[in-house]
Amino acid sequence: MSKPVVLIAEELSPATLDALGPDFEVRHCDGANRDELLPALADVDAILIRSATKMDAEALAAGKKLKVVARAGVGLDNVDVAAATQAGIMVVNAPTSNITSAAELAVGLLLATARNIAPANEALKGGAWKRSKYSGVELLDKTVGVVGLGRIGALVAERLKGFGMKILAYDPYASAAKAGQIGAQLVGLDELLAESDFITIHLPKTPETLGLIGEDALSKVKPSVRIVNAARGGIVDEAALARALDEGRVAGAGIDVFASEPCTESPLFAHESVVVTPHLGASTEEAQEKAGIAVAKSVRLALGGELVPDAVNVSSGFIAEEVRPGITLVEKLGRIFTAVAGAVPAQLDIDVRGEITEHDVSVWKLVALKGLFTDVVEDPVTYVNAPVLAEQRDCQVRLVTSPDAGDFRNITILRGTLADGTIVSVAGTLTGPKMVEKLVGVGDYDLEVPLSDHMLVFEYTDRPGVVGRIGQLLGDAGVNIGGMQVSRHGESAIGVLNVDNVVSQQLAGELAEVIEATKFAVVDLED
């Protein structure tokens, strides 16, 4: 059996290959070269990139087998996440890999602007001793405004607190309690701009934050302010900042990121009071190693069919260990539901009952949808595109939980309402120390049947000889019965058979006709 193919399109830490392990065929290409990248994508299962490889709609379409795009870093500006989601391709990154490195660079740029380290260094190496020209300012008792109190902003605030600085923070999504824990005071943006001696930016790049520190914002700052941007290019309007420096309305700046990169020309470069670096926030050995290891682990999980915590286009959230064993069961229940119903429901309730509801089981909505559409559409169904498929088919999904599971420790019921108003339900549970997956209900019928790769589910009018006729036909067709159970409800009955082989639609039709079945479903759970 061939190994999954992983394409490494940029230079990554050697620890990345170690983390991938021996279970993959690893190939390399220059992701920045489109003529090399596009044909290389044709038969790969996953691609690992950094910032130079553009995974746009064209590149994603070239990856006919592509299941995962893994960005060894935080930003995803070079990945068309929407197109990947539509194609069912998981996008993962390493959101915490570089936070320490990025925070330390921001502090370094702030110190460099405060003490004129860069121009003093250049002057001295040029033979000039200019002590008086390059005197600076202390950080002690100064006010720093942290714009964005996420993971990196919080680390910067904690470090600058150690310099004896007063910390103001602007972040509409942060709580006062969180700010207080790191010794910061939450304020509005205008107050931060007016009061800060230093301003450091730590926001994501969005339509709302693009140009946030522009002409209007820079008209509200102290002329002695020094501004640091080690977050995303474009949040600080570089042309507006250059004008403010020209006019003496800003004292200095430390810039690591630019609106267009690579950037080798800028009006900011003309100012000695501006320290610039070429997007070095994540450029430490430690950050690169962490990023490579993180995305390699994510690729292993994704190609193994597992949910990935760092997938940016999968709403899975934290999954407790107690919840994980039920993931496969719920996905299989989704497939059984589709087989029994013969249609996609307009409304699907995932009804989870028992001790398991002490934990967050919201991921089971996603898992149930993946199972629901697996045998309905021709294209591969993944945790990524399953919600998209549901939306396209107007399938509404709801999670219902209750601590009371009746006769079971835990039970999950998929209950769907079809377009014609018919209600279909299937229920399953895990039993015993080996966590055996069992079907324990179809509609109003109670059962307890272990799940197998091939199953038949049929409803009929209860009478003698039905099971014998089914057994005879299956035997004649060379299909062995591994187990069965019949459940009765009034004059009707339902039978569930575990069989060793695939039952063709033609044979299923003959079986249904012979027993005069009111419902007959072939369930195939084999991957």
TrEMBL record:
Gene Ontology molecular function: NAD binding; phosphoglycerate dehydrogenase activity
InterPro entries for this protein: ACT-like_dom_sf (IPR045865), ACT_dom (IPR002912), ASB_dom_sf (IPR029009), D-isomer_2_OHA_DH_cat_dom (IPR006139), D-isomer_DH_CS (IPR029753), D-isomer_DH_CS1 (IPR029752), D-isomer_DH_NAD-bd (IPR006140), NAD(P)-bd_dom_sf (IPR036291)
Entry-linked CDD domains: ACT_3PGDH-xct (cd04902), PGDH_4 (cd12173)
Keyword NAD carried by entry: yes
Lineage top rank: taxon: Bacteria
Pathway linked to the protein: Amino-acid biosynthesis; L-serine biosynthesis; L-serine from 3-phospho-D-glycerate: step 1/3
Keywords per UniProt: Amino-acid biosynthesis, NAD, Oxidoreductase, Serine biosynthesis
Any single GO BP term: L-serine biosynthetic process
EC number: 1.1.1.95
Catalytic activity: (2R)-3-phosphoglycerate + NAD(+) = 3-phosphooxypyruvate + NADH + H(+); (R)-2-hydroxyglutarate + NAD(+) = 2-oxoglutarate + NADH + H(+)
Annotated ACT domain residues: 455-527
Function recorded in the entry: Catalyzes the reversible oxidation of 3-phospho-D-glycerate to 3-phosphonooxypyruvate, the first step of the phosphorylated L-serine biosynthesis pathway. Also catalyzes the reversible oxidation of 2-hydroxyglutarate to 2-oxoglutarate.
NCBIfam families found in the cross-reference section: PGDH
Family: Belongs to the D-isomer specific 2-hydroxyacid dehydrogenase family.
Protein name according to UniProt: D-3-phosphoglycerate dehydrogenase
Species name: Intrasporangium chromatireducens Q5-1
